[in-house]
Write a structure and sequence with these properties.
Blueprint (H helix, E strand, L loop, with lengths): L7 H7 L25 H9 L13 H14 L3 E5 L2 H12 L5 E5 L4 H10 L6 E5 L4 H7 L4 E7 L11 H10 L3 E5 L4 H4 L9 E5 L13 E5 L1 H15 L5 H12 L1 H20 L4 E5 L9 H7 L6 E6 L2 H11 L4 E2 L9 E3 L11 H6 L6 E5 L5 H12 L2
Parallel strand pairs: 2-3, 2-4, 4-5, 5-6, 10-11
Antiparallel strand pairs: 1-7, 6-7, 8-9, 9-12, 11-12
Bound molecules: pyridoxal-5'-phosphate (PLP).
The site of pyridoxal-5'-phosphate has 14 residues, from helix 4.
Length: 392
Amino acid sequence: MLNESNHFDTHAIRTGHRRTAEHEHGEPIFTTSSFVFDNAAQAAARFAGDEPGNIYARFTNPTTQAFEQRLAALEGGESCVATASGMSAIMAICVGLLKAGDHLVSSRSVFGTTTVLFEKYLPRFGIETSFAQMTDIESWKAAIRANTKLLFLETPSNPLTEIADIQALANLAHENDCLLVVDNCFCTPALQRPLSLGADLIVHSATKYLDGQGRIVGGAVVGNQQLVGEEVFGVIRTTGPTMSPFNAWVALKGLETLSLRMKAHSEQGLKLARFLSTQKCVEKVYYAGLESHPQYELASTQQSGFGGIVSFVVKGGREAAWRVIDETRMLSITANLGDVKTTITHPATTTHGRLSEEYRKLTGIEDGLIRVAVGLEAIDDIILDLSRGLEK
Ligand SMILES: *Cc1c(COP(=O)(O)O)cnc(C)c1O
């Protein structure tokens, strides 16, 4: 029955759990490192791959598989592999699908640590990366070489909420025999389904909205059986950054409320963005749900909601931005996001602090820029908390 359902919310709640002989209603956590065989012949058959089934929890675990199957259903993918973190998901794609002499093109506006992986570590293994301006298809075209194998992007971008055209970039990738990888962390499948737009692989940091309550670090890759079920899975089972059963259980339960939460984060985000747009001391607001956003049209067709990340620039540079942050009493000053608790951060001196001042200016990470990841507290209280510093 479930395989026939096209409904996101049904999969989010029902897919993945195979009830055991105990007839439990809630999904169990299998805290076991290995699995027992009926006899030596079965052990041999499992190890030889002739019989499906669990062997050892670095390879598979029923709780982790429940999360994988549920997330695969939500993204509309054949296969999902859960990982210890979002970064190990990205690393496993690179190790599994690239080799020395290959090249990848990444959006400039990706998670900072992803850039470090591409610029510092991959070159040691003979893999080079070029960076493209995510909203400009010509910039991607110019960066592609004969040996390019992957295009990598994140949309909306962090913290400036730029939107990449997934369908156009999937077409460009395929014309050049490349795969398109989309980090779908900010929208989650509740708001955006990149595979249906032509992307080949989805990356997640389950740390963010999939868990949704800031409790775990985790990640996942979703795609077809060959790329994910074989290549990426092979890297994870060999190198070891598997997701623990406990973390898988937390993320699994997070998926049950994902669409409700993302809808609420989007409603709150729009309210906050509209409020900030009316403030005299706010120079600019970045949120794709505002009609003034340059990619409002694209975001409206590509996404079913605009998400919870709102960034804005206050007049008065770093000093003014720090004052707004320091005057808050409820908001959490932390770089994490995707939590029911609202978080606030100053990108120029935290997440983007390593970059040169010129580079930050060039890419819009101004000193007055503040990023808020809107949580699910009453929006009036969130606005009140931000207003304390805005008034000064
Ligand atoms: C946090 C984040 C990551 C990395 O995930 P971890 O779980 O911290 O390893 C990757 N991409 C995006 C967009 C993120 O926000």
